[in-house]
Design a protein that fits this description.
The chain has 121 residues and is α+β, with helices and mostly antiparallel strands. It has one domain. The chain is built from three helices and seven strands. It has a five-stranded mixed β-sheet with strand order 1-4-5-6-7, sandwiched between helices. The protein has a two-stranded antiparallel sheet with strand order 2-3. A hairpin with a 3-residue loop joins strand 4 and strand 5. The model has no long low-confidence stretch (mean pLDDT 94).
C-alpha cells in the first residue's frame, strides 16, 4: 500500500506542476486519474458507495473521487484551505468503503505539499 500511496503523491505533484492552482476539482480529478493510469495503476472515478443504515444499504449519492487499485481513496479539493470537515468526510468514506488508506489533496495551493493529508483507519 505504501507503493500505491507514493505513486498517488508523485502523480499529484506532476499534475500540480503542469497545471498549477486555480482550476476546478473535476479538472484535477481527470488529470490525476490519467497520470496514475500512465504509471500503470488501476484507477476508478466517481465510485458510488452505499451507506448501510439499520442493516439496509442505501444509495444516497455518496461518491468517491478516485479509488486506486481498489485499496486507496483519493478525495480531491480545489478550495482556499482544508478544514476539519474535509478530514471527517474522507474518514467516513474510508469507513463505508471498507478501505484503510486515503489521501485528501487540495490542489488550490501554491505548494502542493501544504494541501496534502494522509489518513489511515
Amino acid at each position: 500500500m505504501n507503493a500505491i500511496g507514493t505513486a498517488v503523491m508523485d502523480s499529484a505533484f506532476t499534475v500540480h506542476r503542469q497545471l498549477g492552482p486555480g482550476l476546478l476539482e473535476a479538472v484535477y480529478e481527470h488529470c490525476l486519474a490519467e497520470e496514475m493510469k500512465l504509471r500503470g495503476l488501476q484507477v476508478d472515478r466517481q465510485i458510488a458507495v452505499p451507506v448501510t443504515y439499520n442493516d439496509t444499504k442505501l444509495d444516497v449519492g455518496f461518491r468517491l473521487d478516485l479509488l486506486v487499485e481498489r485499496k486507496v481513496i483519493v478525495e480531491i479539493k480545489a478550495i482556499d484551505a482544508l478544514a476539519s470537515i474535509h478530514v471527517a468526510q474522507l474518514l467516513t468514506y474510508l469507513r463505508f468503503a471498507d478501505v484503510r488508506l486515503g489521501y485528501l489533496i487540495n490542489f488550490n495551493t501554491v505548494r502542493l505539499k501544504d494541501g496534502f493529508r494522509r489518513l489511515v483507519l
